[in-house]
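Troubleshooting: if your tokenizer reports a length mismatch, compare your output against this known-good record of 434 residues.
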Amino acid sequence: MTGTVIILPGGERFQLEWRRTDPERWERRLKAKYDESRSAERSDKARCLCQHRGAVLPLQIRYRADSHSYHLAVWPNEGSLHEKTCPFYKPDPEKSGRASYVNSVIREGEDGDVAVTLSIGLRRKGLPRPVDDTPLPASDRPGQARQRRMTPLGLLHLLWERAGLTEWRPQFAGHRTSTVALGRIASAGTRIRAQGRLISDLLCPVAPGHEKFGRRLHAVVRTEGPENHLFLIGFVETLEPDPRGNFTMALSGQRDGYRCFLTVPAAERNRLARSHQLAAATLALPEAARQAHVVALLYVTARNILAPNSRWRGWIQAEVRTGALMTVSRSMLPFESSHELAVADALVAAGRAFEKPLRFDAERDLVFPDFILQDTARNDGYPMEVFGRTDEAYATRRAEKENYYDATFGAGGWWSWDATTGSRMPPFPSGRLR
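Known-good structure output:
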């Protein structure tokens, strides 16, 4: 949240980072504006720099009687209207796989930070704590919240969402690079906690030509101890067998100053291939033939190579304990099928504004749109669905989706493409006049 500007009643500029760097000033200025903000008109209340439909989005100045302190809070039911990069942004869980989690898994703070319950234990030494797989009671209906913990895939999706990388605007063209994406991911990690630790403390991006990221990886390994656990995130170049029966993974930029070997045990590689079949199929192609990138979030054990006579002394040996893969387009937009990729690329080419809801850890029975157009006359977005299979099980699933969309948005109130018929992609709904 560093550098986030808040406008207080009367036009006074206020830095959100003062809560950390100058708490006395933070309390003094919010206390001085507390009564004024409560009585002010909506447009004159405290606010960030976000706008929705040309109007400002107010914030609340609240007083905590138990701690005798003041804080800023998002206006009720307006968190999803803020920009994705705003600390006060709160996604609408009903429009993504976040709806599959029980309430305790993602806990939203009033300052925009979140705390999550992970399926792995973030320990400095030793193996990760085992996962409690005790099942929840059976659900009454398909799609009900039932996930009690967030896996590495859920964390990867949360980081991508918090970094604003699930949405697209025409002005992003030419600026959404892999290095920019990883920089935004690193920033998003400063607003996510798990087991009392900031994810950013353990998160090390790997990006081509980024010396700062490379130095950070070595600094984290030195700080955490001779053997520790941390997260690596980057774009996978290769995943190949090694002579010992395991696999080696190369992330883009890994050879560029990181001085790091990355090993994937055969059992973990096989699990990743089963769980992320689209990503595995993409990596099986020659790099020049790939139409997309594969992102990896890897929870690794890392240690420095200290053997005095080794030519690799000072390098890092990292072994993957668990992780997740995600396939993204050239514009860094996630997708789950070749048909979704075609739609995402077509929307980008058409200069449309839209977002891509992510699945997180939701089971397949949870219904949410493949894409949501944000530049139509409909204030809550225009849902889009791609039908890409013809098997009997999917036919039942398709009928459930169609019934849901008709009941929620009205017949004809949502866009769809049956990609199995060989038909051309239908025209997109008209955008608002600019």
